Amino acid sequence: xxxxxxxxxxxxxxxxxxxxxxxxxxxxxxxxxxxxxxxxxxxxxxxxxxxxxxxxxxxxxxxxxxxxxxxxxxxxxxxxxxxxxxxxxxxxxxxxxxxxxxxxxx
Length: 106
Description:
The chain has one domain. It has 4 helices and no strands. The chain has helices spanning 2-22, 29-49, 55-78, 84-102. Helix 1 packs parallel to helix 3 (55-78). The chain starts with a helix and ends with a helix.
């Protein structure tokens, strides 16, 4: 069940971060509200996941998957570039999450 909470936390964080881009510096009310609600939901779900997961593993997955997903959203929705440095950075993040999980962190 902890991975379901963690997946929900990641999804809420990704929605919140994307809405923040649309909030135009918190000058647009609806995207700003989605941002605040999304982060609150994300932290609540992350806290629930942490009841039975190690903090290092949970945070690595939450931040790593969230970062990689938001980078992909930036490419698709906002036309951000994809250079070698960005590819390498995402690969290192994903690799770090995998290593933490394979390292037996529970």
